[in-house]
Queue: 2 jobs
Job 1
Amino acid sequence: MPNPEPPSPAELLHLRGRTLEKGEPIALPLTLASMYHLPGDPAGFPGYGRSDNPTWEAAEKALGHLEAAEAVLFPSGMAAVAAPLFALLAAGDRVLLPSDGYYTTRLLADRVLARLGVTFDLRPTAGFAEGGFAGYRLVFVESPSNPGLDLCDIADVAAGVRAAGGLTVVDNTTMTPFGQRPLDLGADIVVASDTKAPGGHSDILMGHVASRDPALVAAIREWRKLSGSIPGPFEAWLLHRSLETLELRLDRMCRTAGIVAERLATHPAVRAIRYPGLPKDHAHNLATRQMLRPGFLIGLTLASGAAADAFIAACRFLRPATSFGGVHTSAERRDRWGDAVAPGFVRLAIGCEPAEELWAALEAALSAGG
Ligand code: PLP
């Protein structure tokens, strides 16, 4: 399989400009509409706000450029995760999920899908292919997994699932299309929370599903229309605006994460570190093969839960917050949500602060007893 190519940030910036008529605004207008002027035959025209909105379409076009696929916008990452599960599964189907991925996906399977007759199994992301994929209608992958940052070989998994007659869905939230390209690696569907780095300013929730298979995209679009799981136009407008700086922000975030991870790895207060960009990380070879960037999330383990809380509280450039991918660096002790991690495990989400200023603040907080 050829190495994935990154999407062009310059093309992204000029997607709209190339379609403009004289006198139209360069920036995307925000269209708020439930009704459209629709005399006569409605076929081929925007009809109603649950199925059509030009602001969504512009955001989908931008996401479609980034994924080199057709993208369907959803009002949150979970709405995007749920869409293929509800649009494509039927009673009697079996699903494979990561045991160490985003916990709400497992809850959805447990609380809702199981009740509808869809059974599921869990497997750790490291070693996800062990045991094979026979009998699974859909295999859901998250690499790097949130929060543990384990990896699996997406191309290997997708090939195995395809040979067994199933579909591979990859949650690419932690990487974005500038960091990893699951569809290029053979996945059938990619889902993502655009609440994170694509939105990037911690002020919207949004998500998308993308695929290169028109039948799968049609099923996902129908699900959105029938379920009414539609994004608000204003949030879609904000996402469209944020996508224009995604590559710039991600570049800064990943570079800074690399510098910070290297220094944290030798800091005496740090007991363990996970960052796929570190040559010593046990998934580093796979990361270099399948990821375009090493990411902006770092998993670090301090001596205890109290030490982790003290570190987060003491750092002037850390916002103690759940979620990640914003311009402001944030950190969270994941044990407080019951994730299967050590009490002192902190998910550090690097933002856009200059690396040296950020490191000085992190270092000061660690040395103050973190
Ligand atoms: N997938 C992953 C990997 C996530 O980390 C999250 C949120 O943290 C989601 C999906 C859900 O996204 P949202 O909060 O936008 O619904």
Job 2
Amino acid sequence: MQAIQRSVPRVMAIHDLSGVGKCSLTVALPILSAMGAEAAAMPTAVLSTHTGNITGYTYRDLTDDMLPMAWHWRSLGICFDALYSGWLGSSRQNDIVLTIFEEFGAEGTLRLVDPVMGDHGRLYSTYTPDRVNGMARLCAKADLITPNLTEACFLLGETYSAEVMDAPGARALCERLLSLGPKSVVVTGISTGEGTIGAAALEAGSGAFSLHEMPRIPGVWHGTGDIFGSVLLGALLFGRGLAEAAALAVDFTAGCIGRTYACGADPRLGIDFERGLPGLIAALA
Ligand code: PXL
């Protein structure tokens, strides 16, 4: 079947749908839409909330629905400009994403893997250490990966340290991640000073390295990686370079945290990205 034309870039967003908690699909969809991209949702699971610091959540696994959804889209001739995976519920889902990369990863399609596994030095409660290798295999097939510092350390089998690092140290970390196989990497949660936090980016082809930080507001802010990844992807789809897209994503995420902190909202329920969307649209215009 002939590919159906599309007027805006289309993303396959492969993440869980957590009803409350503003992460994964509930941030990827509105952010990508606001930035002008179409987001096709492939939910990996449906939960009542995310699993971070919240107990009693419901969980419905959707592993068996993923490939049939993809085959239906393919039967309709639907193509994607980006394949964007995030939180996955099982190692089988990793293999399914690999299959989707093979089937839909045409020339020019950006394969972005956010290897969502943990934060603050620990794996998420639903994530087992034996799944880390599977995630590393998926990262090897990506054009771009966006681990946070914790995930970077697990992928590399290195000990996590929350200590600050200098720019050469951040670049060396990115280089070690590129040796896993992806074409580019953006690592979040990088601090070169006690009061700042941001992201380091390295492109394998050009060797271009960048580091961008904002003032740090201490705390555990849920959904920040998903918000960061969605803004980064939206900016890349609209022609921004990796360094510029990463800086935009750092600034946007910092703004969300700042607004959430200022109004004293429960950070477990997600951060205030909504009020940042008009500014994001303006920044892209
Ligand atoms: O934002 C990361 C994330 C996504 N999805 C689910 C999670 C988490 C982090 O805890 O639990 C279901």
